[in-house]
Amino acid sequence: MNQDQLKQLVGRAALDYVTPGQVLGVGTGSTVDCFIDALAASGIAIPGAVSSSERSTQRLLKHGIKVLDATEVTALAVYIDGADEIDGKGFMVKGGGAALTREKIVADLAEKFVCIADESKLVATLGKFPLPVEIIPMAAAQLTRHFAKLGGDAKLRAGVVTDNGGHILDVTGLAITDPLAFEAEVSQWPGVVTVGVFARHKAQVCLLGGAGGVKTLTF
Ligand SMILES: O=C[C@H](O)[C@H](O)[C@H](O)COP(=O)(O)O
Questions:
Q1: Is 103 a catalytic residue?
Q2: Residues with CB under 6 A from ligand 1
Q3: Strand 85-86's sheet: what is its strand order?
Q4: Which CATH class is domain 3-123+200-218?
Q5: List 54, 85, 103, 134, catalytic entry
Q6: Could you report the per-residue pLDDT of 27-74, keeping only the tens digit for each?
Q7: What is the percentage of the chain residues whose pLDDT exceeds 70?
Q8: DSSP assignment of 119-153, as one string?
Q9: Do residues 69 and 50 make contact, with C-beta atoms less than 8 angstroms apart?
Q10: pTM for this structure?
């Protein structure tokens, strides 16, 4: 199976976590696109979804699935999203599609984060994938210096403006051995809107697609 087929496989597998009649949190990315398509084809009736990006909102609406504003719900039972990297504890790097800020907001509303990914995303230590950080543009140079002190090389993602009007730094050269401490530290730097390490909002479940089918990892 190629990577696209694996994404479709885990997208379909995630339907097991959708409860009819319950509002669902929906992430962003090519794997989530497969999930949204599978959800629409399944006929499972949900009252609506809270979306983490304009991209997912458009896809949900195209399928006739109602999109609710995050301010309209007090809690979500489940949030389904992809990842750029996930480790053996359910800690993730996210934001390759620049949607990390809204993703963390929706994940914060949810009791359970279900990550859907192909097996290429499973890593021993986070940091090989360039770490996305949404920032306020005027802080770019200073934040680049802060990352350099940690051994990171931060580059502004050219031509990208997020759904929130922010910019993205992609940071290479990091080995994130303590994701909780790293997230707490970087989140405090002035000008950081959201760091793409999801440690406080880690996955509780990962549906990992590989040659042998879908493996369910629980953390
Ligand atoms: O901003 C994008 C998100 O964090 C995605 O969940 C992540 O980049 C994974 O996307 P994909 O399923 O396309 O690999």
A1: yes
A2: 27-31, 81-84, 94-100, 103
A3: 85-86, 92-93, 197-198
A4: alpha beta
A5: 103
A6: 999 999 999 999 999 999 999 999 999 999 999 999 999 999 999 999
A7: 100
A8: GGGB-SSBTSSPEEEEE-GGGHHHHHHHHHHTT-E
A9: yes
A10: 0.97
The pair of structure tokens assigned to 155 is 């580059």
Domain boundaries, the chain: 3-123+200-218, 131-196
92-149: pLDDT as tens digits: 999 999 999 999 999 999 999 999 999 999 999 999 999 999 999 999 999 999 999 9
Cβ atoms of residues 162 and 134 within 8 Å:
yes
Please identify, by atom number, the ligand 1 atom nearest to the C-alpha of residue 121: 14
- Residue 48 CB contacts under 8 Å (≥ 6 apart), including other chains: 23, 24, 65, 66, 67, 68
195: nearest Cα among 118, 148, 143: 143
- Reported ipTM: the value is 0.97
Tell the burial category of 130 from Cβ atoms under 10 Å away from its Cβ (0-12, 13-18, 19+).
Answer: buried
CA nearest ligand 1 atom 2, residue: 97
| CATH architecture classification, 131-196 | 2-Layer Sandwich (3.30)
